[in-house]
Amino acid sequence: MSSDVVVELDGVRKCFGPRVIFDDVSLSVHRSEVVAVIGPSGAGKSTLIRCINQLNTFEKGVIRVLGHEVYGTEEGRPPLRRDDLRRLRTEIGMVFQTFNLFPHLSVMKNVMLAPQRVKGRSEAEAAAQAQELLEMIGLSHRKDAYPRQLSGGEQQRVAICRALAMEPEVMLFDEPTSMLDPELVGEVLAAIRRLAVDGMTMILVTHEMMFAKEIADTVVVVADGGIAEMGPAKEVLSTPKTERARSFLERVLLHTGGDTGPQAAASEGGFDAASGGFDDPTLSWSREVDEKGLR
Amino acid sequence: MTVQLASILGLWGSYLPSFMRGLVITMEITGLGLAVAVVLGAILAGFKLSKFKALRVIATVYVDIIRSIPVLVLLFLAYYGLGQLGLTLSGIASATAALGAFYAALLCEIFRGGVQGVERGQREAADALGLGRVSGFVRVILPQAVLRILPPSTNQLSNIIKDSSLVVTIGVADLMARSYEASATTFEPMDMFVLAGLIYMALYLVIARAIGRWELNVQRRRG
Questions:
Q1: Residue A265: per-residue pLDDT
Q2: What are phi and psi for residue A10, nearest 5 degrees?
Q3: CATH code at position B75
Q4: Which of A:173-232 have CB within 8 Å of B?
Q5: DSSP 8-state symbol, A22
Q6: Which side of chain A, N or C, has fewer Cβ within a 10 Å radius?
Q7: pLDDT < 70: residue spans in chain A
Q8: Which residues of B24-45 are buried (b: 16+ CB within 10 A; e: fewer)?
């Protein structure tokens, strides 16, 4: 494992009962790399990243996250000790499709809870850090609100802050925008873009193809029980080499209403990754895409 | 009519101190029984949610047996039955044991349902943040479960208050016993039992209102 590899999957197989979801998945994610995982629904994209922080177990293979090693349950190794599992998880930030904010805690307390309880930070330290994160993400004015009082986009941005408060080495995003109303997608993508610009290592399961093309270094197409294709984002998305990846991308681009095939979509790149301004939540990105009629 | 009302109020007034002393005993029995029921019910709920089958079986068997037995039978078992075995319990201790044992079985199911009703994503979010099992439960799951547990538990509270009156059968001087005694002395059972009923009602309503108000406040605060 070379020194700048943050996450490495080696021959991972996941089954639900007798059904194999995917098999022999191998993948390396380097520091500051942004990996987008795309593919048809039911292919196991979410399950794949949930294996990384052990929200799902897997049967075969090994996953390494920095110094931690997790083996498949059928590899004949003793299961991970509870403390080791916790330590592994503190290296990994996770953002869920359904936000999963703690509804009984204010925005501030949501962000402060884990640093206080897991890292033993004082209330003052945790509050200062939470304040800083919320300011960065443009939500400090909502710090005393409760999750139910926030829009979906705001909730998801708080969830991102909550994960960042643990200062993770890698962030996992499990379809972070698919539960959002279309007009709220942009603000969440802006937050993610900002992290990419800051050099956060990220693995992102997404259906936002244009966004994947914009911020991802690497695109992984998961389909039919494994990785159908993997490579530099622009190449995979514009000139997929395998039939499975090509047919998936064609279907997606047709569905999103573009008259563009993968080829045409490629030439429309040119989003400015650095412009993820949080002061302006009405984001250039979603507007541009709206104008192009892709959404 | 006014004369009659005045005489009832006069009668009530003269027995009120006695009834109030009875009410204290009723509240004592209810409170102690409830405390035992909550603790034992929480332990049983923990058993039911355990990954160990033996514990789940123990809890299930306990709940199935206990809740099918009338509280009065449990009370007599505690008071007379255990006495026969050499374990003599006072009336109040017997009532605490019987009410505690019975309502633990009911609260166990309510607690289990409340904990299981918290969305799975909450546990996952706590896990993903590296919160341990204990902090995850205490800080994330429990505060949400409480709001699901409170309304059905408040209903059980009304039952436990009412069932506390069964101690009249073992000679504990609770509110029920006081009213029984007063009706026998005055030959005014209607007046005396109406008064007892009103006091039981007031006790429940005051507590239920307080819980309800607290619950509403919490919910309002959380949006």
A1: 40
A2: -135, 105
A3: 1.10.3720.10
A4: none
A5: E
A6: N
A7: 1-3, 254-295
A8: ebbbbbbebbbebbbebbbebb
Contact call for B133 and A82, based on CB within 8 A: yes
By the CB < 8 Å criterion, does B201 face chain A? no
Inside any domain, residue B1: no
For residues B178 and B164, the answer to whether their CB atoms sit within 8 Å is no
B38 falls within a domain? yes
According to DSSP, residue A212 is labeled H
| Angle separating helix axes A182-197 and A284-292, nearest 10 degrees | 130
- Residue A291 has which token pair? 């104008």
Compute the nearest-CA separation of A17 from chain B (Å): 19
**Beta bridge partner(s), residue A69:** A64
Report the domain count for chain B. Answer: 1
Residue in chain B lying closest to A162 (CA): B129
**β pairing state of A218-223 and A201-205:** unpaired
pLDDT digit string (tens) for B180-206? 999 999 999 999 999 999 999 999 999
Please name the member of A90, A114, A146 whose beta carbon is closest to the beta carbon of B223: A146
Residue B213 structural domain: 6-221
Chain A environment of B219 (Cβ under 8 Å): none
Helix axes B2-48, B91-116, angle to 10 degrees: 60
Q: Is the pTM of this model over 0.80?
A: yes
Decide if A118 touches B, using CB distance below 8 A.
yes
Alpha carbons A97 and B120: distance in angstroms, whole number: 13
Q: How far from each other are the two terminal CA atoms of chain B, in whole angstroms?
A: 52
**A96–B contact, CB cutoff 8 A:** yes
pLDDT for the residue numbered A3: 63
Which residues from chain B sit within 8 angstroms of residue A114, using beta carbons? Answer: 129-131
Whether B45 maps to a domain, the answer reads yes
Give B-chain residues touching A149 at CB under 8 angstroms: 223
A145:B133 CB<8 A: no
What residue ranges of chain B have pLDDT lower than 50?
none
Question: In this predicted structure, what is the pLDDT of residue A2?
Answer: 52
Q: Kindly tell me the burial class for residue B8, based on how many C-beta atoms sit within 10 Å of its own C-beta (0-12, 13-18, 19 or more).
A: middle
Report the gap between the CA of B44 and the closest CA in chain A (Å): 25
Rounded distance between C-alpha atoms, residue A30 and residue A48, angstroms: 17
Q: Hey, is the C-beta of B154 within 8 angstroms of any chain A C-beta?
A: no
Asked whether residue B71 is assigned to any structural domain, the reply reads yes
A142-194 tens-digit pLDDT: 999 999 999 999 999 999 999 999 999 999 999 999 999 999 999 999 999 99
| Model pLDDT, residue B1 | 59
Interchain contact B86–A (C-beta under 8 A): no
